[in-house]
Design a protein that fits this description.
8-stranded mixed beta sheet, disordered C terminus, Rossmann fold, globular, 256 residues, alpha/beta, two-stranded antiparallel ribbon
Length: 256
């Protein structure tokens, strides 16, 4: 892992962390694994020299999760977040803390794909508010997590170290569809193709408009569930060709 630099997107680090997000789907993931069957939550903690990578797995049943997504916000202190995301993080929080220990001399990297990206963001904020230094948060295809108050608090703590990668044809970063109460947080990396020049950092509404209009037309024609191929983790791995281990690529295709 390269040393983190505030407000600087590192495609090499993104490639490595995307690979760990993919590997979290594997039945026998490398590292210390924490599972909570009640909330279908998995976290994999892997040490690499002075780095500790905390990868939250996405849902094991993407089709049902997307179809039945619960939009309800629940209060968590001074902000509100998606109820299901909050319950999932709460279910593993104590176990992750026990595995983490003090870890003050370790660079903490937090990552996840899809639902895992939302949980990664929630956990990173929780850790930062308790004095842990977060080296970076890299998420892939992550839905919105909470309301405007959550976004404001998160950005005050972690925006300079948070990068949300969004595939131009992926529908999940656009959900929940009740957008009035939900806000994204962190920096956005908008990815249109495998060309590095296509990566747009913190794109404007106008920059995303062609993709959004095309996506809306495709959704009306085919339905949102039919568009899941562009959301799967191997679609994100393909956008980060920088030195991804072949084993991680293989694990990506084990995603349900």
């Amino acid at each position: 892992m390269n040393a983190p630099r505030p407000d600087i997107f590192d495609p090499g680090n993104a490639a490595v962390l995307c690979a760990f997000s993919a590997a979290a789907y594997a039945p026998a993931a490398e590292g210390a694994t924490i599972d909570d069957n009640a909330t279908d939550t998995r976290v994999v903690l892997t040490r690499r020299d002075d780095n500790l990578i905390i990868a939250f797995r996405g849902t094991a049943d993407l089709r049902n999760w997307l179809t039945d997504l619960d939009y309800e916000l629940t209060r968590a202190g001074n902000f509100r977040v998606h109820r299901g995301f909050h319950e999932a993080v709460s279910a593993v929080q104590s176990d992750v803390s026990a595995k983490l220990g003090d870890a003050r001399e370790t660079r903490l990297w937090v990552t996840g794909h899809s639902l895992g990206g939302a949980l990664a963001m929630l956990w990173a904020l929780w850790a930062a508010r308790r004095g842990h230094e977060i080296a970076g948060v890299y998420t892939f295809g992550q839905p919105r997590v909470g309301d405007a108050a959550f976004s404001h608090l998160y950005n005050s703590k972690l925006k300079t170290r948070t990068w949300r990668s969004v595939h131009a044809d992926d529908i999940v970063p656009r959900v929940p569809w009740l957008l009035g109460r939900y806000r994204h947080a962190g920096h956005e990396v908008f990815l249109g193709s495998m060309k590095p020049s296509s990566r747009i950092l913190d794109p404007s509404i106008l920059a995303r408009l062609p993709s959004d209009l095309l996506h809306a037309a495709r959704e009306l024609r085919r339905g949102k569930v039919a568009l899941l191929a562009d959301h799967r983790v191997h679609a994100y791995l393909a956008l980060f060709p920088e030195t991804i281990p072949s084993a991680a690529r293989a694990a990506a295709f084990q995603q349900p």
